[in-house]
Write a structure and sequence with these properties.
Structural class: alpha+beta
Shape: globular
Strand content: 5-15%
Oligomer: single chain
Number of helices: 25
Distance between the termini: 73 Å
Number of strands: 13
């Protein structure tokens, strides 16, 4: 008998259908949640920005050839002669080609086409449009179409042509061909670059002193270094006015130079960006391997050579990241140059002037697009640098412990003291200005500058609105951000969707607040948008603030979630426990320190933000930071300083509450960390 048990025909099994894993109920819920939050970012970020970019390409121009006129004799008789608007303008030379470029709300008078025009004349006029989109106003009445409208001279002087809309890059051409506007690019880049060099240098040596020396009062210096985060960027500008302004206490130190301009912007920028650079550089310097320094000592390397061959290479990623963060903060800041910039134009202030001053929203959109380019470039470089960063510590690393050096410790103590005096001095000057009755003539102390209800800017209601905004942003923003980070970090599969979500979450960091605010005008202020109902309400302020500060909060949450072992989800699945139960009972308690950090971060930034909300508030939702701006514009500088200090004290109080609450809550929920 032939053995066929192992014949090739029988040993090959037929190919079955590919088995696809079935999505569990938890997987479906997590993906649905991720899609919902992604839609939130699309509606609150991507769509407004796309509409703003589209607006920058919208051009409006008066098409004179689309309008025709007839003129009667003094008896009111028309001879049938038709005059074209373009030909009339060429003959009269009233408007240049540049004059015909305008915005969506542009109006052009027509009486200049007729040199002998007089509103008292018995002569009558006829006007019509011969183009489909040709429009003109007679007073406040809009006319379209090719029917003749006959008007007397007195009514004819109220005729205004309306522009026609098209698309193209003429707005950008006009922007770059206008020196007063295009110079803002050079000014912004120069200010940002110089501020970055100064700030990073100061922050590096300050962080170096606290991490690599044995100076006293390290805790005090760390506390002082973080103070500028608690105030809006306008406040250092006000302090500099009192110090170096026309009636400043120390104006002689400038040797005749003016604080209103690049000098003031540079000093103020160093003040409000210092803590951001310090945090990043201090983190980089805090992680070091003592074995490298021992090797340098054994090789008899000088301290200076060790510094350049060991310290700087280990901290290079922190230095580069700090530089781009500072650059981005300075080039996108609006408050400081608005207060003390004088005639020194920068991009962020140009947006404000175009939108608020000239109501030219299209040119404001153009400046916004120009401002976004260096901001995105700086952000992209920073992300690239961080992606190449490698771990500098291993399991065998030995923590670096600085050794006492009386000479260097004394030098570093003096340096940190000088930097501390600069930071505390700015805040002290603002507090002094807030308490003085009438600078510089009556230096007696009074609380009259805190009577905000007697000032322009929104009164005490603006202050209460800011607290309300801060609390709503902290609660809602923390919930949305942390839950979104949990979904993208702990979901299984869905690789493409998670990558897209991560891209949306990173985008807000690269978008300046002024740009986001202007984009919200175009998007939410459109009557055809069903979300138009939130425009001018507290809701849109919360939405814009959460969106504006989404990225840093998201990265904080993701960092905390990455520290949790993936086995938690596996164990929960084996025990058939719902994902949301795991989230509530395990993930949230474990990540509570990060959740509290996110909440205080959002609260403080909601209290101090100016650029993201300056276009969005209404009379009922005025904010304290906006009140500082409005009072400064109205010349009430002392009350503006008082309101700025109220923001500082509120944020400081919130930090203290956060610290106390953290210790109490973490003591109960984080006991496992000490086992």
């Amino acid at each position: 008998m032939t053995d066929t048990a192992h014949s090739p025909a029988q040993s090959q099994m037929p190919t079955g259908a590919a088995i696809k894993g079935k999505l569990s109920r938890d997987d479906i819920l997590m993906r649905a949640g991720m899609i919902v939050i992604a839609l939130y970012l699309i509606v609150t970020l991507v769509m407004p920005l796309s509409i703003m970019f589209s607006k920058s390409l919208s051009t409006y121009r008066f098409d004179l050839s689309a309008f025709e006129f007839q003129v009667s004799d003094e008896a009111g008789t028309f001879d049938g002669t038709i005059l074209n608007g373009l030909e009339l303008n060429e003959a009269a030379g009233v408007y240049t080609p540049r004059d015909l470029n305008t915005n969506a709300d542009g109006r052009l008078g027509v009486t200049g086409f007729f040199p002998d025009f007089s509103f008292r004349s018995p002569v009558e006029y006829k006007i019509r449009s011969i183009a489909e989109d040709g429009r003109y106003l007679v007073g406040s009445t809009l006319y379209t179409g090719s029917e003749w409208q006959q008007l007397d001279s007195n009514t004819f002087r109220r005729v205004s042509l309306r522009p026609t809309k098209s698309r193209g890059i003429s707005n950008f051409v006009e922007y770059f061909s206008t020196p007063a506007l295009s110079n803002s690019i050079k000014n912004s880049l120069w200010i940002a670059a110089v501020s970055t060099v100064i700030t990073v240098a100061l922050a590096f040596w300050f962080a170096y002193a606290l991490n690599r020396s044995c100076i006293r009062f390290k805790g005090v210096f760390r506390l002082i270094a973080m103070m500028p985060i608690l105030v809006p960027s306008l406040l250092p500008g006000i302090a500099l006015v009192y110090l170096f302004g026309n009636q400043g206490m120390l104006k002689e130190l400038l040797f005749g130079a003016s604080i209103y301009g690049p000098i003031g912007i540079l000093i103020g920028s160093v003040f409000f960006t210092f803590p951001h650079a310090f945090i990043i550089i201090s983190t980089a310097l805090a992680i070091s391997d003592a074995r490298l320094y021992e090797a340098a000592t054994s090789l008899r390397a000088s301290p200076w050579r060790t510094f350049w061959t060991v310290t700087i290479p280990a901290a290079r990623y922190g230095l580069i990241s700090a530089a781009f963060v500072v650059f981005n903060l300075v080039i996108t800041d609006f408050g400081l140059p608005k207060v003390i910039g004088g005639q020194f134009n920068v991009l962020a202030v140009d947006i404000y002037k175009q939108v608020i001053g000239q109501q030219n929203f299209e040119m404001g959109a153009v400046v916004s697009v120009v401002l976004v380019i260096p901001a995105i470039f700086a952000f992209a470089i920073d992300r690239l640098v961080q992606s190449k960063q490698i771990s500098s510590l291993s399991a065998r690393s030995v923590p670096f412990q600085p050794k006492p050096d009386k000479k260097m410790d004394r030098i570093f103590l003096i340096y940190c003291t000088l930097v501390g005096i600069f930071i505390v001095g700015i805040l002290a000057i603002c507090q002094f200005a807030a308490l003085v009755k009438f600078w510089p003539y009556d230096l007696s102390l009074s609380l009259k500058n805190f009577q905000f209800n007697r000032m322009d800017g929104g009164g005490w209601e603006a202050y209460y609105n800011s607290i309300k905004l801060g609390l709503l942003t902290a609660v809602i923003g923390t919930a949305v951000v942390f839950f979104g980070a949990y979904l993208v970090e702990k979901s299984k599969g869905f690789t493409t969707g998670r990558a897209i979500f991560q891209g949306f979450a990173m985008l807000p960091m690269a978008i300046p607040g002024m740009v986001l605010g202007l984009a919200y005008i175009f998007f939410f202020n459109n009557p055809d948008n069903p979300l138009n109902v939130i425009y001018g309400t507290m809701v849109i302020l919360v939405v814009s603030t959460v969106t504006h500060f989404y990225t840093v909060s998201h990265l904080t949450a993701v960092t905390a979630l990455k520290q949790m072992d993936g086995e938690f989800e596996s164990v929960a699945a084996s025990l058939k426990q719902p994902t949301m139960k795991l989230f509530a009972r395990v993930t949230v308690p474990v990540c509570l320190p990060a959740i509290l950090d996110i909440s205080i971060y959002l609260f403080v930034n909601a209290m101090t933000t100016v650029s993201a909300v300056v276009f969005l508030y209404s009379t009922d939702t005025a904010l304290a930071s906006i009140a500082v701006l409005n009072m400064d514009d109205a010349g009430d500088i002392a009350p503006a300083a008082a309101m700025g200090m109220m923001i500082f004290y509120t944020n400081a109080f919130a930090r203290i509450i956060h610290l106390i609450a953290s210790r109490g809550i973490l003591g109960r929920t984080q006991a496992w960390r000490t086992r």
